[in-house]
Write a structure and sequence with these properties.
The structure is a homodimer. The first copy, chain A, is mainly β. In chain A, 11% of the residues lie in helices and 36% in strands. The first copy, chain A, has three domains: 135 residues, Nuclear Transport Factor 2, Chain: A, CATH 3.10.450; 104 residues, Nuclear Transport Factor 2, Chain: A (Roll), CATH 3.10.450.40; 429 residues, Distorted Sandwich (Beta-galactosidase, Chain A, domain 5). Chain A contains nine helices and 31 strands. The radius of gyration of chain A is 27 Å and the shape is globular. At the A-B interface, helix 1, helix 4, strand 5, strand 16 and strand 17 of A face helix 1, helix 4, strand 5, strand 16 and strand 17 of B.
Chain lengths: 736, 736
């Protein structure tokens, strides 16, 4: 090795190290650390650990920081409240003292540490002010010396006990890992050399940690792996539009070492930075005027509300509005969790159960390009990256309206220390100008009737930014008992570099795997699936699943001038396989979760139905490795008997999972589900063929499904809603 | 005939006549007549005619009537402006003077009188202030002495010329007919006797005119027929919930005479009035308090807007907001018509064509009960009843938000006189708390980015009450170029009387044709289809239709670790049959209308795509008479070459039509559609199995579809939208 090569390597290593520091430092800006006094309850050692950049920053010195609720003194007040800062610290101490971790506690990496929710009967029984909280327990997923562990932590008794570990796969990456793995390629001289050969400065390079899927033991080699792909940040914050195409760096996640570099796209230019930045500040070089008068939007409904919001959040998590009451919390993996949703019966005033727990359980995002640098992109965002971990603070006035209230998340760094994700969830009342119900009489009846009622709803929202993509998840509660669950897609496409700058350069029938969005940029076709776990308890835990099938019925000769009509037939699903549904437009059905033991006055079983809207189904070969791992998307609807351990549709460990432990495998057991405590699963899907309007950042595309009362109430529960009168509305005068 | 029978008959006749008078008088309350000064331009005779209750009421004497825009002095200012009051009066004079009508002008019944829109090239060329208006013409559909006529009326030249008359079917009923036919059964002693036998007082009876469909010449007898079904109004304004079941009165519409009475349900009780009234005033006997705190709704966005709305309506019909400009008008048959929709290009400022004309063309609402009193209920609400005629004045603050602006309709009574339908359309800016686009950077990239933009849209709305049902139609324009067309269903179910008061009385497998909603009330299963005619002109009149089909592509052995991916293939439809689409979840596609001669900078054809959301397809036998008439619902998507005469998907005359002249028959001609001026048709469908929550009035159920730019803009057109800052929002103090 000659001197100049050594020097070069040394230089690159130094640059790489500098980049690590830069990345690490800038990461400090974001999550809110527990401020200085936290030291008193953060029982671990003082200084930084390699894991927890967020727990060790210096006290705030910003001028007039906004007043934040303190989480240091949080205490649990509801059985489902997430672990508090104090509880996390206590769990951390217990884990670090647990053999064999006690031998080297700084080598312990906490991948998940969350409330082990008390048993469902205890939670359903619990009443505030009447019962004490059930004992607080946590469940932890950790890595230690190359092994995964799952542990039960009894916070009161101070005990830690091992739980079974899944047969395949690895835990969700920690944020610290994702952070440090961004820098891993820079430690490899060959990587730095190829970057240089492409004419890119190393400090203009940003790499993303991309989960590799699982494609057999030969590729896997029994190791925990990540594939790094890199982009040029030169000239734009939207580096996603500047891929260094064809370069994939395989890194061993446990050692941080580069295992392999695949470098195939040397001839592909890096797309230009021009017109890619989306930040308001970046567009300040614009002349500042709104040339065509529509880049500044305002609406009357952004106005002040002198009376303030009409909902309450009690004890930090219990939301009350209109007839609804539910528990709302942030979760590192699921994002936003709605529990214990009950609605008040307008006739009796009784509080009635609807849903024990609802959340996004897993996502599946396969890209549709089988080539070397793309085939593995088949993300499971919740289990691989943490859907909640990636939910950044919401932007007031833009992500949520003026009168929203915000809720923080308390999460756990890799070293087990708590940190606060500010403003992760918002809650607001929504009035979109819609009509709750109406009727006018036509003049032909001679009745002068004009009755109409405005629709106001309550929304709980989070927005997760899983690297480039942004997912907006809304839980919207209506006064008529309907719950709408909506997923919006925005953010930035994952794009592919290409030599082409115009479609006339592309050969007839050449496979592009996407759309040419701009010069040298292809937006690659992909799907999104979001699978929701909906533990329905309709007027009690034991429910049944009914398919109300609609089919053409032909009339008998002479029976009627009509030849045909649509007939509805009810089928109660007795076992899991009976309750697998692939939607078909011309074989329509309604899907009810009923309580077979509770009837309305005229004898219909009370129920809620899941109402699909626009959706998509996966077309991949069921035996394709990604589809086996994502087999929970094989149907739009599944029903399973309640099982506390079946929470994550892709399995507890989905990272490099083989698909051995998914909703599809559980359902294959075909357990009885009639008049049982059951869980409904619904998958919302999108096919996305990108178009130029998605460049450089995508206008939001949304879809939703509803949980809707069906013979749950005796009659329209908002019949007596009062009309809005002019006198009910505040009169304001602009001040100053 | 003995004396007592004669007396009884006489009494019934007198009662019937009284009822006619009551119905007619009360009908006077609703539509706004042209006020007293109108007499000066209403060129016809002074007093009431049998047709026009609305044109002859006495001058207003209400205290402080709201200030309404005067329509007497309206003049057309845009080629597509609807006929003005003056023009309608002129057309009426011309028609009444036209032989043979001149012989008996009072026998002339005007069923439709509307603008004959100028030829499309002339309208597309026209510029305000540059060109004079094209000559104003009208098209009239009239009945005279038992015959239908279609006539072209040249307003300037004062000429009337006959046009071809459809081979089958009859014109849309006039409101006057619908009004007078409500009373027709009361002229028949046998009807009155059966009502009496059922224990109902005659003045508690209200009858609805129900279009009979068409079930062969034997049933038809070459006559224009209506089927009247009746309800008890005793104790409720919601008489729809009190059917006098099984009683169907067949009336000859031209003579007003009862032809046949079918009376089969004598044993079926009339459901009770209790709990059926939905009017706020009817619930005043409630204790007035909001017992459970959710029957009074308010939201911050109902607040005042000191700055007022951000859109303009110029010359009464041209709406301008953000980048959008379009012409908006009320139409007696289609309801709400959007024309000449153009959007401004954010890069060039150029105004670009999107859609020449969009409207609801026809509805099809088949009920799913083949029995005697129900089989014929297969409504086509636009062509039979007039979707616009049935759109009543909107209720401020409840149907539309506080800051909405309203637009009136000017329609034509049966005697040809104009009348005003107040507040038929509203226009408002909508801010629902949604996000136009967003991206946050994860801490792993070290970039502290939080960019988000709120979504504000513009809605044009109408709500048609076709007897019991209410249809809310929204055209929503987004700043990113998307148009969402949404249909909401509310109002009151069409229900069936039944002896059952509890489901335990119903035999296993007994066909109910619906759901027991309350004692003695079945909500009958039905479908709704709304077919929209969308004359797309994407950057010019000549466009092509492209199906971008997504299908599984298997990889070759050894090609990739992936076995499969989703591949998109573009198919340009050459003729109409190529462009018929029945949606399938597992055979997905995108549906683009492109301009094949206009390309983006990188060479993609500019386009708009139609994006279905939740919908339903008709399951009826294609040879079933109603489905033949409603054959335009056989596909979700059709494309036809532009033809001015193909506006109404069920044909010009759908009343008792045989299905000879529908979109399906036009499409069968299989005309070329590639690079032609083409029209896109989309049908939005709903299956409705009623549930108890729909009683006594239905919470709104909605579905929608989108017209969305696809490579129409070079990039995201709202990239430069400014974020909302606190300082941008008004600060208000509540006054007094």
């Amino acid at each position: 090795m000659d001197y100049s090569t050594s020097l070069l390597r040394l230089t690159f290593l130094a640059l790489g190290a500098a980049l690590v520091l830069i990345v690490a430092r800038s990461a400090f800006r974001l999550p809110l650390a527990i401020d200085a006094p936290a030291a008193s309850f953060l029982h671990g050692a003082g200084g930084c650990t390699r894991f927890s950049p967020w727990a060790c920053r210096s006290p705030r010195t910003e001028k007039s920081p906004p007043r934040r609720p303190s989480h240091e003194s949080d205490v649990p007040r509801h059985p489902l409240d997430p672990l508090t800062v104090t509880e996390i610290s206590r769990a951390r101490d217990l884990l670090r003292a647990h053999p064999p971790f006690a031998s080297a506690p700084s080598a312990l990496a906490v991948h998940a540490l969350a409330l082990d929710e008390p048993d469902k009967p205890a939670v359903r029984r619990w009443r505030k002010g009447v019962h004490a909280l059930p004992p607080r327990r946590a469940v932890a997923v950790v890595r230690f010396q190359g092994e995964s562990h799952v542990l039960a932590v009894d916070l009161a008794a101070g005990k830690v006990a091992p739980l079974p570990v899944p047969a395949s796969g690895y835990p969700t990456m920690t944020m610290d890992e994702q952070n440090s793995l961004c820098a891993a390629p820079f430690g490899d001289p060959a990587f730095n050399a190829t970057i240089r050969r492409r004419g890119v400065r190393l400090d203009d390079v940003a790499c993303l940690p991309i989960s590799p899927g699982w494609y057999g033991p030969a590729e896997d080699g029994g190791r925990r792996l990540i594939k790094s792909q890199c982009y040029s940040t030169e000239g734009t914050a939207n580096f996603y539009m500047r891929p260094i195409e064809g370069l994939t760096v395989l890194v061993d996640m446990d050692t941080g070492k580069v295992v392999h570099i695949s470098d195939r796209g040397a001839g592909i230019p890096i797309p230009a930075a021009k017109n890619t930045d989306y930040r308001g500040a970046a567009n300040d070089d614009d002349d500042g005027t709104d040339r065509f008068g529509y880049q500044t939007v305002r609406a009357p409904s952004m106005e002040p509300a002198p009376e303030g919001p009409g909902f309450q959040i009690e004890d930090g998590h219990t939301v009350r509005w209109a007839g609804w009451e539910f528990h709302l919390k942030a979760d590192a993996r699921a994002g936003l969790v709605v529990s214990g949703a009950t609605v008040q019966d307008p006739d009796t005033g009784a509080r009635r159960e609807v849903m024990y727990k609802g959340m996004a359980s897993e996502l599946f995002v396969p890209y549709m390009d089988p080539t070397e640098a793309w085939y593995f992109k088949t993300y499971m965002d919740a289990g691989e990256y943490g859907f909640g971990l990636q939910a950044m603070p919401l932007v007031p006035l833009n992500d949520c309206p003026r009168h929203a209230r915000y809720m923080d998340g308390v999460f756990v760094a890799a070293d087990g220390r708590p940190y606060v994700r500010e403003n992760m969830i918002c809650v607001f009342e929504r009035y979109a100008g819609d009509i709750a119900w109406r009727h006018s009489e036509s003049p032909i009846t001679g009745m002068d009737i004009r009755e109409s009622r405005p629709k106001v709803t309550l929304v709980a929202r989070m927005a997760a930014s899983v690297a480039n993509y942004d997912y907006i998840v809304d839980w919207e509660f209506q006064t008529d008992g309907l719950i709408r669950i909506k997923v919006g897609l925005s953010g930035i496409l994952m794009v592919k570099g290409t030599p082409y700058s115009h479609m006339n350069q592309v050969r007839q029938n050449e496979e592009m795997h996407g759309t040419l969005l701009s010069e040298n940029v292809i937006g690659v076709i992909h799907d999104h699936y979001v699978t929701f776990r909906l533990d329905m308890d309709v007027d009690g835990a034991d429910n049944s699943f009914v398919r109300v099938e609609m089919a053409r019925q032909d009339t008998a000769p002479g029976e009627s001038p009509r030849r045909s009509y649509l007939k509805a037939t009810r089928h109660i699903a007795s076992t899991e396989k009976d309750a697998r549904v692939r939607l078909k437009l011309y074989e329509p059905a309604e899907f009810h979760v009923i309580n077979p033991t509770k009837k309305t006055r005229v004898g219909n079983p009370v129920g809620y139905k899941v109402v699909p809207a626009g959706t998509a189904g996966s077309l991949l070969d069921p035996e394709d490795p990604p589809q086996k791992r994502g087999a929970f998307t094989n149907n739009q609807i599944w029903v399973t008997p309640y099982n506390k351990s079946e929470e994550w549709a892709g399995g507890l460990f989905v990272y490099q999972s083989k698909g051995e432990d998914t909703l599809a495998t559980w359902s294959e057991r075909d357990r009885p589900i009639e008049n049982k405590d059951l869980v409904l699963w619904y998958t919302l899907g999108f096919h996305h063929i990108p178009c130029q309007e998605d460049f450089p950042i995508m206008p939001t595309v949304s879809s939703s499904f509803d949980l809707k009362p069906v013979n749950f109430f005796e009659s329209n529960p908002i019949l007596k809603q009062r009309p809005t009168m002019e006198k009910d509305l505040p009169v304001c005068a602009a001040t100053a």
